[in-house]
């Protein structure tokens, strides 16, 4: 397909970089929302190719990173139950809870299994009817439809030994919290293309109007991000603030109507605390009452108590774009992928993991974002 060659075209990339340099007439600050975008930016050293007056901040777009401690502790507690099989995506196993992580719970005898889809957990529940199978449902709107399909099928098939520990979160409320903060410095946003593939672009339009911030839906290849940055800068320089779609090869304004209908049928928005951040209205998803029998919190009478991460971990400031990862005193010393203090050091979308893995520790990245 033609577009595959286009978004990996180095000649076009150089042209876009030149256009970015030509477009910038004053300092600007842009935040990319998605952790996958952060990894591309850090891995390919895109910051080094951009004008010094352009600052890129890394946003809270890593669902593993923002899953609150109390939910991780609940998953660990469930894994310790004799009759429970706790299913999870692999990148959750090393995320530290209050005292341990899921990998340690597995080593201590808990039945923790890595799956690649909630439908894998559903098949396991069907195959082992005498076990309680709990899927730890983590992710943004991107992965939530698959979770919704799994629980919808479980209800249709009366698989009452299947349940969900739901930790799904929504992107727009997090952006609202960042943009409404009195300390906000974000002047433009690069929105996550995969989320918008499901949800579309319409729900970002009120944010762009209310806060006069251009929002560009962007893909994940280096050229995608460079083009998204150029589109965002063009709006900033022209004094415009609308939603633009760089990722048109995958995203439509209406998103995926079938997936959105399924999400609305299975889930309802709820207030949720984000790890290292705050309690944000309507920022989480919970099962509707019609699916209450598949809700692990209700089935196992879990009592979630808000808990705070280690004081030496500054993941919250990283997720809010206040500092770059190397500015955290624990980065690379107390906190490493082998001994993480916070989720961003072990998640495949975590900013700290990206900086550690690709050795980005230059002076610009160590500095604290000025307030």
Structure summarized in a few sentences:
The chain is of the alpha/beta class. It is 40% helix and 18% strand. It has 18 helices and eleven strands.
Which geometry do the CA atoms define? globular
Strands side by side in the biggest sheet: 2-1-7-8-9
Structural class: alpha/beta
CATH topology of the domain at 68-168 and 256-299: Rossmann fold
Number of extended strands: 11
For the record, the CATH class of the domain at 68-168 and 256-299 is Alpha Beta
Report on the architecture of this protein:
The chain is an alpha/beta fold and 371 residues long. The chain has a domain at 68-168 and 256-299: HypD, alpha/beta domain 2 (Rossmann fold), CATH 3.40.50. It contains 18 helices and 11 strands. It has helices at residues 2-6, 10-23, 35-43, 46-49, 63-66, 69-79, 102-107, 118-127, 144-156, 171-180, 193-199, 205-211, 222-238, 257-266, 296-299, 315-319, 351-358, 363-366, and strands spanning 28-34, 54-61, 84-88, 112-114, 132-139, 162-168, 188-192, 215-218, 243-245, 267-273, 279-287. The strands form 3 sheets. It has a 5-stranded parallel beta sheet. A 4-stranded parallel beta sheet has the order 4-3-5-6, with helices on both faces. Helix 9 links the parallel strand 5 (132-139) and strand 6. The longest helix has 17 residues, at 222-238. The chain is globular, with a radius of gyration of 21 Å.
